[in-house]
Amino acid sequence: MKRNTLTHLTAISLLLLSTLSCNNYLNLDPPSAFDENYVFSTVPNATSAVLGAYDRLAGLQAYGSRLSMMYPYDNDEMVGVLNTTAPDNSSRDLSRYNLNPTNAQLRLPFEQLYAGVERANICIKNIPAMDLYQNGSAEEKIQLQRLHGEALTLRAQFYLELVRNWGDIPAPFEPSIDQTELFMDKTDRDTIYDRLINDLARASDLVPWRTEVASDERITKGAVKALRARLALYRGGYSLRRVSGIMERRPDYLKYYQIARDECFDIMQHRDQHTLNPSFQAVFKDGIDSYKIDPFGEVLFEVAMGRETDSNIGYYDGPRFYVPGNTSMLGNGQIRVIPTYFYSFDSLDIRRDVTTAPYYNSPEYFKTVQPLLNMTSGKFRSDWISPRLSSAIQATGLNWPLIRFSDVLLMFAEAENELRDGPTAEAIAAFEEVRTRGFGGDMDLIGSTPTTKDDFFEAIVKERSFEFGGEGIRKYDLIRWNLLGTKITEVREELTKMRNKQAPYENLPQHMYYKPSSTEVIWSHSLYQPTPSRAPSGFTRVNWIVALTDVWINNVAQLFQPNRNELMPLPQSATDANPNLKQDYGY
């Protein structure tokens, strides 16, 4: 939920930006109720303008729903909306990789991201040109420099989302009112990434560290550096190319791994600013789900949401629930955990029971276990939201975490391993710091860390899955590693083994017995041993492995095609409006 300086996006911020920008990046003739000289004449007005750019990160067409809970699925951890009997040209087809340019979930997120780019462009052009930027008081200069850095960072985040979903795209870096070309061609994604990486180097010099300013959701130096590292890994990773039509990595990729490594290393040297919360669960239950900012600075960058307008997080996903005075079960529970993902966790890894939720909530908020295939993502769950939801409104106001400190540690470990042709002591230490937290701080439980390049990379691939499940990261990780198709095939094969009771799944329970509880699920027996032959007294039976069917298995990323579905088609409205835009990648 928006707090402190982001508590209320003032009316002026939205009015100013709406009059200076275009709602659709293809419409290059915006109205002008206020001219730029007025908007960017004072620090408060400039602040309002930047807050208007922040606003485009929020809402159901951005990280309140589509970008966080629809676009990242299906992957090898979780699946999106389950199939009905026919294609829907909407969220179900999106999850199954059955995409057409007319899909109902493409146009509005695409346009909102470009609206964010436009608002950021206006700020980036005008803030450094303000007289106060050069001649104001020391405090005014500091505030305007921060606003400039925030705008550069916001533009990078908007473009990251556009590029990793659509590839080469039109890339305006000036406000639409200043553009001479009405119908822009596509810009190569490498050119876009290079520009953004340079922008973020500048932005990191302009914004303060977290503890140097008030505690709120505005961008600070750690967020800029972490985002720069993330962009560098995408720039150095694999991507589906327009010319060749295949997944390729550029020959200069190590240059970008070095950037990622250096940015992460610098953040790691500032533990007074950002470090791991000792409790993995607390990051979500006591932080995001309680509308509080993490005291350890683990969440470097999060999207601030409005309670009743911006976010379906915890309603669209997570266990279903009731509210007082409503007799119908609420929540969608649409993001379902793939059984092999649940069983990929070590039984002692506490992240499993934070990341996954095998129950719905009764009207009394007792946990009622569901069949295995109804297990939902768990980090944003209704029974953790505090204060508890009290109405049937779908908006929860939960913020969306974009980058956590554990990501910084694992990006560092990954880049260091690639650059040094194997894991250094520093890479191993960063990896083990994340893994040890996952086992409650007990290093004796984490097992042996691989010491060869390939094995350490495989460990990174797994650890990022354990750490970031349900946070919208996995699909894009797999794409930059060129592993999405491989992992989809693997998960179907493993699910088939599980369905057929083949090793290593032959001893898993076909049914589970549980008792409803208000605090935690009470199981009668192990999740890793066969079902007891006799039903235990006082327990309720629920279908477990026996629930798995061939139809369910085949629905996982059902129509994914390598060298095609790593990217999405442009919305039909975009190609209709711009004759220079053409579909690629077989769409």
From TrEMBL:
Residues 390-587 form the RagB/SusD domain. Its main location: membrane. InterPro entries: SusD-like_N, SusD_RagB_dom, TPR-like_helical_dom_sf. Residues 567-587 are annotated as: Disordered. Residues 572-581 have a biased composition (Polar residues). Residues 84-233 form the SusD-like N-terminal domain. Belongs to the SusD family. One of its GO terms (cellular component) is cell outer membrane. This is RagB/SusD family nutrient uptake outer membrane protein. It comes from the Bacteria. It is found in: Cell outer membrane. Keywords: Cell outer membrane, Membrane, Signal. Residues 1-24 form the signal peptide. It comes from Sphingobacterium phlebotomi. PROSITE patterns: PROKAR_LIPOPROTEIN.
